[in-house]
Every structure is written in C-alpha cells, then in structure tokens.
Amino acid sequence: MAGDDSVLEDLPPSAKLVFKVLEYDGPLTQKRIVEETMLSARTVRYALERLEDRGVVDEDIYFADARQSLYQLTCETDETGAEADAEAA
C-alpha cells in the first residue's frame, strides 16, 4: 500500500476517495462511482482523469451498456496492494 500512497499523495481528496471506492468495490461505471461516493458527476470525472493521468485507473468498455465506461484499478496497483496485504499478515 505504500506504493499507492506515494502515487496518491498530491491528488485532491475526491481522487483519493474514488481510488478507495474502486479498490474496495472493484470495477465500476462512472454512474455507480457517483452513487457510491456521493460526489457530483463532474467531480468524479475530474478525479478519474487525474487517476488515469497517473496510470492508476484503466477505462474499459462496459459490455452491458456500451454508452458507459467501466473503470478499474490497473493491474500494477492491484498487485502492489495484494503484496502489501500479504506482507502485513
């Protein structure tokens, strides 16, 4: 998790919240992230842009509704978190 903290360090609180929601709830659409975080759609879009710029979040096609995108943490971020959890145990 230490690697995640350095990546998120200077991001706005909204981006950190979106990161944590994706970390705990897995891949979500923007609409679902808005519901989970109770942030405005514009704030979530901004947060996702910042996270994508850092290479922490990937945008993919949501096959259930192609008009929406599915956002998830990158594989590198998932592995880092899993390694940190394993070391803590």
Spatially, the strands of the biggest sheet line up as 1-3-2
Sheet with most strands: 3 strands, antiparallel
- Span between termini: 13 Å
Kindly report the average pLDDT value: 83
Low-confidence stretches: 82-89
Radius of gyration: 13 Å
Helical content class: 55-70%
Q: What's the quaternary structure here? A: single chain
The count of β-strands is: 3
Number of helical segments with 4 or more residues = 5
SSE order, as H and E? HHEHHEEH
Q: Assess the beta-strand content as a share of residues.
A: 5-15%
Which outline best applies?
A: globular
Task: Describe the fold and architecture.
The protein has 89 residues and is α+β, with helices and mostly antiparallel strands. It is 62% helix and 13% strand. A three-stranded antiparallel sheet has the order 1-3-2. Helix 2 crosses helix 4. It is globular and about 35 Å long. The two termini are 13 Å apart. The C terminus is likely disordered.
Tags for this entry?
89 residues; disordered C terminus
What's the quick description here?
This protein has 5 helices and 3 strands, in the order H-H-E-H-H-E-E-H. With 89 residues, it is of the alpha+beta class.
